[in-house]
Amino acid sequence: MIYFAPKYYERFKCIADKCKHSCCIGWEIDIDDDSLDAYDMLDGPYADVIRYSIMESEPPHFGLTKEGRCPHLDENGLCKIITEFGEDLLCDICTEHPRYYNETDRGMEVGIGLSCEEACRIIVTSDDFNEYIILGEDDEPIKEPDLQPLPARDEIIEILSDTKRDHRKKYEDFFYVYGEDPDSFNDKRCRNIIENLEYLHEENEERFMNYSFDSEVPKDLEKPMERILAYFVYRYFSVSEDEGDMFESLGLAVFCERLIASIVVAEKVTDIEGLIEIARTVSEEIEYSEENVRYIRKKYSYD
Ligand code: SF4
To answer: Which residue, 119, 149, 150, 264, has fewest beta-carbon neighbours within 10 Å?
Structure first.
């Protein structure tokens, strides 16, 4: 099976000490079995530091410091496991973040998640989301699903990348092509969803309650918003196993995009940096929570 990704993927590189929202702060990192074995075999003073930092839970994880930081994050924002032993000794979660994988009938789709500040910057500023690159190949067979959602997704991505259609027309065509009723994103319904989400940072609920479907971002931010919508469609559409799944995926995509636009308008954001920070926050609150993703999808299901 081949592994492929949107072209912008090749430009991603963790910015480490320059990251203002490091994924090494606030998250307990679970350790996979192979990494655990490797840490057991290590020699040297820092090997003991690594072993002492592992909490024997199920699964085992690195215990955070009282400031909520990964114990291996040094004062310069660099990972001491890398500086002492190299990247090969990172556990799977640290190696993979912020990548995600979706198995499709064309092969394994790979992407980078919007919750990572650098990935977010690349997604929001890149026009090559409709071009794909091959990352590699393995011997695994390609799955053969009953439903093939990718041609429909291609159509949506094509609309969003079309340079001849203006922003408003793209969104009209988007709704027309997949047949979702714009009214299912009405303010009352969506604010009710927002009230029932779980939050990492409680203050975000108030910000999210600014949801307004008709929010029109400043002209300079229209294209970045189209790229954000393309990201959500790319990420969630391909795993659809039936038509109901497709509607749920698109419901989630539109809900997240409209939420970001609403906060941009409510907070009078006019620059790309402000948009990037709002998109990252929405992703962190929604995409980091399986519960939230499940809940929103359910709200857009047929039942
Ligand atoms: S959030 Fe992204 S850029 Fe920041 S430290 Fe993590 S992987 Fe690197």
So the answer is: 150
